[in-house]
# Entry
Amino acid sequence: MGKNLKISIILLFSGLALNFANTHLSILIVCFSVVPLFILLNESSKIRSILNGFLFGFGIGLGMFFWMIKGINHYTGNGFLYGIFVYLISSIFLGLYFSLVYWIIANIYIKNTKSTRSLFLNRLCISAVWTVLESVLAFVLQSFPLHYFRIGFSFVTNIYFLQLTSIGGLALLSFLTILINLFLAEFYLQKKQLYLIYSGSILFLMFVVGSIFYYSYSPIFAGRSFKVAIVSDNTNPETKWNSENGDAFANKYFQLCKDATKLEPDFIIWPETALPWTYSNEDDLLKEIVRISNTQNITHVIGINNENSEDKKLFNSVFYIDKYNKVSGIYNKQILLKGIEEPLGNFLIPFLSQEGFVLSRGKNQVPIQTKFGKAGNLICNEVVSENCSSEQVRSGANVLFNFSNDGWFKDNYISDLHFYYARLQAVENRKDIAVANNCGINAIINSDGTIVSEKKDTSSTLVLGSIQPNTNLSLFTKYPLLFNILLIIYVFIYLTYIKPKTIRADTHEELKK
# Structure
């Protein structure tokens, strides 16, 4: 087997391993899956690094988007070949992205330096560059959440590591993950235990600092806690309401409402598009749902489309409806899915359960005022956007509600990732969050990341728990870009001052020999 072929296979498998770590949320695997990529920096040319990066990213894509082959055909009816086409294009996109990342890193990378300090500072710069580029990609792909890739995300499964996000967001976890991989690669190359100690020390410090944050955190209460009942009928989104099944669906909803009402909650929270049509105050089904619970002072928070009466624009919305069937608040989704909810150019995937709805973006959306404080709202992929939640918390949100429909992805990894992104938002912004998700995980998560209750069923789901409003503002919420700005400053200082100085010192040492 030729050397180049062997390297190509290693890089593809390394990418597949990193994808496995990301989709299965494995902290162990993510800590060494990028090591082969960094080892090859020591012997590859800068031109070869472009191909190496592509193979690595393409390998990630091959695993990450494999579900698309059957999924795209199943969801849209556009055929098996169309699924393969989207699968390959998505994988190539990741390949091109990592080509750029790896080429930039290859131009910064210093090898054969005798100074441990110089090497340490260089690896810090590489981690910083990786993290900043990853954050830029995340911002660009807000409307393409299925293509999201954040290397530090696996750490959110651990309650202590998760606490670090309240300082620097997910970017901080990604930065430390890359640093661990870099020092493990250096350990392999130089066989110096010092670099193994560096990697172990980073993990240890992450755990210790996270533990301190977890046990020292104290929410600043804003009024009393309140009870929420999260209900989901878990209907397959391919199933259309019609004259034949309408009564059965309605009775299912009524029973869920009756069961929830018996628990005497303050809010009954329904998933995204729980009613798959446009809101009307004369909607008989909605009126009956409200009537069932109006013996108590319950507010329904329910996903239903909203049409603007003036310009006829249609929104993916959440309505707050009181016991008198009066609308007390409306939130319109701000970050739409490109190519699905809004066109990508002239392109729009017509999902089989929808009639090609073209939605409009909600603008200048603010938290909804309730009798227990302000509620920030995140519909579907908005929970993946760190910016969307932090903006609402800075605007005064005391709690967060997340509404989703994972029916399309209930049998793959996306549903679990969706849940852990909600957990991430709870800790990043120090806000309790209620998650209502059709065919996904329904849960209540405290602002310290503790999962109060969670449930995923194939039949109707009902989850009850308490939410405590607070006025805490984490460092990340106040300054969401701070960590990335600090990294950019460090990269600039390193490239303009530290690296040239290092090169001069190494050259001087060589001349002395």
Remarks:
- The first helix runs from residue 3 to 23.
- The radius of gyration is 25 Å.
- Residues 3-216+481-512 form one domain.
- The chain has 16 helices and 13 strands.
